[in-house]
Amino acid sequence: MFLVWKKANIMRVRMLLIGIAGAILGVVFFISFRTCFVDSMVENYVEHLKQLQNLEIAHANLLYCICKVRILQMLGLFLCYLSKKRRLFMQFCIGVMSCFGVIQIMCLFFVYGVKGFFVFLLLHFPQGLIYLLIFLFLLYKTENVGADYEYQKYVGKGNKVSRFLARLLEALLLVTSCMLGILVECYGNPIVLQQIVKYLI
C-alpha cells in the first residue's frame, strides 16, 4: 500500500509539472503567433461579448453548437479514461487544457487588460464548475486505479453484480452531469454574461 501511495504522489507532481509546462507553452504560442491567427481569436471573443450585450440569444442554435463541441470533448475524455493508457491520456488532457486556458486568458487580457481575467471566469461560469468536477472525478479514478486493484486483491473479487452496478451508476452520473453542464452553458451562462460583463468592458 505504501508503494501505491508513493506512486500516486509522484503522479500528482507529474501532473502539476505538465500543467505548468502547458501554461508556459500557451504563453510562448500566444507571443509567437499573435500576429497570425491569435488576433482572429481575440476578434471572435470581442464580437461574442458584443452580441451578448446587444442581441437576444438564439438558444436553439447555441444549444446545437455547444452540444456538438462538448459532446465530442466529453466523449474523447471518456475514451481516454477507458483506455489502458488512461494515465498518459489524462496527463495529456491536463497539458492541453492548461495551454488553451492560458491562451484564452492572454487573448482577453490583451483586449481588456486586468478585467480580461474576470471576463475569462465569467465565460466559464457556472458550467465550468460542472465540467471541472467531471474532470476531477475522472482524474481521481485514474489516480486510484492502482489502489483499487490492491484493495480488490486484499478483500477478494467481491460481488461482480455490485461492481457492475457501481460502474453503471458512475457512468449515468457522468452523462447526467455532462448534459447538465451543456444546458447551464446554453441557458445560464449567457444571462450571467449579459448582466455582469457590461460593467467590466
Shape assignment: globular
Mean pLDDT: 77
How do the helices and strands follow one another from N- to C-terminus?
HHHHHHHH
Coarse structural class: mainly alpha
> Strand count, sense and closure of the main sheet?
none
Low-confidence stretches: 1-5, 146-156
Query: Approximately what portion of the residues adopt beta-strand conformation?
Result: under 5%
Describe the structure.
This protein is mostly helical and 201 residues long. The chain has one domain (2-199). The protein contains 8 helices and no strands. The protein has helices at residues 2-54, 59-82, 86-112, 115-123, 127-143, 145-155, 160-187, 189-196. α2 packs antiparallel against α3 (86-112), α2 packs antiparallel against α7 and α3 crosses α4. The protein starts with a helix and ends in a 5-residue tail after the last helix. Mean pLDDT is 77; it is low at 1-5 and 146-156.
